[in-house]
């Protein structure tokens, strides 16, 4: 099939994220990818400002990751994880325990970010049952969050402005505090209200789940690290399982390996995904403390009630360990700082608000983005962007050059004018 035939079949038969089947949004045909760039039919090579939805931190066709994938494929591609194990899974778990915040020494290997959050919520619920508090079935969170598309995940996403508000009548009823203040905002005032809300509902709460330091798809909202300490204190005071969803923030995106480091806080449960395999294969991990694991073991079933078919996929685990090898060199620290410096140019754009944190650059408009027009304008400058709501942003691969970052800033500026 030629490009036109492929796109025609795609339009008639393939569902893309958050699009209509009757009136689908335009799609573009990718014909190759290398380093920080993707090749789009009829457009040419453009800088990928999205890093494939924040996952391809090392860029495309990285020789170390390619080799890890080939080597494992020559041994075996997959075996069930029930009753069996293998070196790639064990090695990845060992590395994650070593790298993640203190105390997280039990690892559940899931197959997507949403599933890792579902598992984290199950862990909190089963832990409460195991320690004799089965009445604790709700979660405390904050407005503006996003945790995935599956049902329990949707229930802790923003209930009003989020993508899942249409499901409000069938989702579990959770407790929502106010969104943390922006950088430089009044943390004390926000914390007072959040503490009062937690105390009011404590008897029904199993856990507290948040995205640390940066709320992602709920609005690209950074907030002070001090808030992380408030979350930890509230969880400890009321016996809640503290869950940090670092699917978007993990592996260096905010400037620290894990965003929780900024507040000096260790959660009870940690969710990882997206960049875990450097964007090569779908894989996620949910880590928890031994204390949480003991609570789960004391619950009715005595076991954690979850087990995906592709749990611990050897190909994905092997690539994930290779990705961690690349991060272990420390180069990402310099790359993220360099990208951050380049993204400061966004402050020259006339817009409602500009936010830059780590390798994240966000421009907020005072109106909803015309996605089609903004996308075309960015492409004309050699940048691939995917705006949403009133936001035009970039979270590029760490391998972007200074020239690439300048291209992305030019693309964002053009998108702002067009959108």
From TrEMBL:
It comes from the Bacteria. InterPro entries: Aminotrans_3, Aminotrans_3_PPA_site, BioA, PyrdxlP-dep_Trfase, PyrdxlP-dep_Trfase_major, PyrdxlP-dep_Trfase_small. Homodimer. The keyword Calcium does not apply. Substrate binds at residues 53, 146, 274, 307, 386. The gene is bioA. The modification N6-(pyridoxal phosphate)lysine is found at residue 274. It holds the Pfam family Aminotran_3. This is Adenosylmethionine-8-amino-7-oxononanoate aminotransferase. It comes from Saccharopolyspora terrae. Pathway: Cofactor biosynthesis; biotin biosynthesis; 7,8-diaminononanoate from 8-amino-7-oxononanoate (SAM route): step 1/1. It is an enzyme of class 2 (transferase). One of its GO terms (molecular function) is pyridoxal phosphate binding. SUPFAM superfamilies: PLP-dependent transferases. Its EC number is 2.6.1.62. GO terms for biological process: biotin biosynthetic process. It is found in: Cytoplasm.
């Amino acid at each position: 099939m030629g490009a036109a035939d492929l796109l025609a079949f795609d339009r008639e038969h393939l569902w893309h994220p958050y699009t209509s089947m009757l009136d689908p949004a335009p799609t573009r045909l990718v014909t190759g990818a290398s380093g920080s760039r993707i090749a789009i039919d009829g457009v040419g090579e453009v800088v990928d400002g999205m890093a494939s939805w924040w996952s391809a931190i090392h860029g495309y066709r990285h020789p170390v990751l390619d080799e890890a994938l080939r080597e494992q494929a020559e041994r075996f591609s997959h075996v069930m994880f029930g009753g069996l194990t293998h070196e790639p899974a064990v090695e990845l778990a060992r590395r994650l325990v070593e790298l993640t915040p203190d105390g997280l020494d039990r690892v559940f290997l899931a197959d997507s970010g949403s599933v890792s959050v579902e598992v984290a919520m199950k862990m909190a619920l089963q832990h409460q049952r195991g320690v004799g508090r089965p009445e604790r079935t709700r979660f405390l969170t904050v407005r503006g969050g996003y945790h995935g598309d599956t049902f329990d995940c949707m229930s802790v996403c923003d209930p009003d402005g989020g993508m899942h508000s249409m499901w409000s009548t069938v989702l579990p009823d959770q407790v929502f505090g106010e969104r943390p203040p922006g950088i430089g905002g009044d943390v004390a005032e926000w914390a007072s209200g959040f503490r009062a809300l937690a105390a009011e509902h404590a008897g029904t709460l199993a856990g507290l789940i948040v995205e640390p330091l940066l709320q992602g798809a709920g609005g690209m909202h950074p907030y002070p690290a001090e808030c992380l300490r408030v979350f930890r204190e509230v969880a400890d005071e009321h016996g809640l399982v503290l869950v940090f969803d670092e699917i978007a923030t993990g592996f260096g995106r905010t400037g620290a390996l894990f965003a929780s480091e900024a507040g000096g806080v260790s959660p009870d449960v940690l969710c990882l995904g997206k960049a875990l395999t450097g964007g090569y294969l779908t894989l996620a991990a949910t880590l928890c403390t031994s204390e949480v694991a003991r609570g789960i073991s004391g619950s009715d079933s005595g076991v954690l009630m979850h087990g995906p078919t592709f749990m611990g996929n050897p190909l994905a685990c092997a690539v994930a360990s290779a990705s961690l090898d690349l991060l272990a060199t420390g180069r990402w620290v310099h790359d993220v700082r360099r990208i951050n410096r380049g993204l400061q140019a966004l402050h020259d754009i006339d817009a409602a608000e500009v936010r830059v944190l780590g390798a994240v650059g966000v421009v907020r408009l005072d109106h909803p983005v015309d996605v089609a027009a903004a996308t075309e304008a960015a492409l004309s400058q050699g940048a691939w962007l995917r705006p949403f709501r009133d936001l035009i942003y970039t979270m590029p691969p760490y391998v972007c050059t200074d020239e690439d970052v300048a291209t992305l800033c030019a693309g964002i500026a053009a998108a702002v004018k067009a959108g």
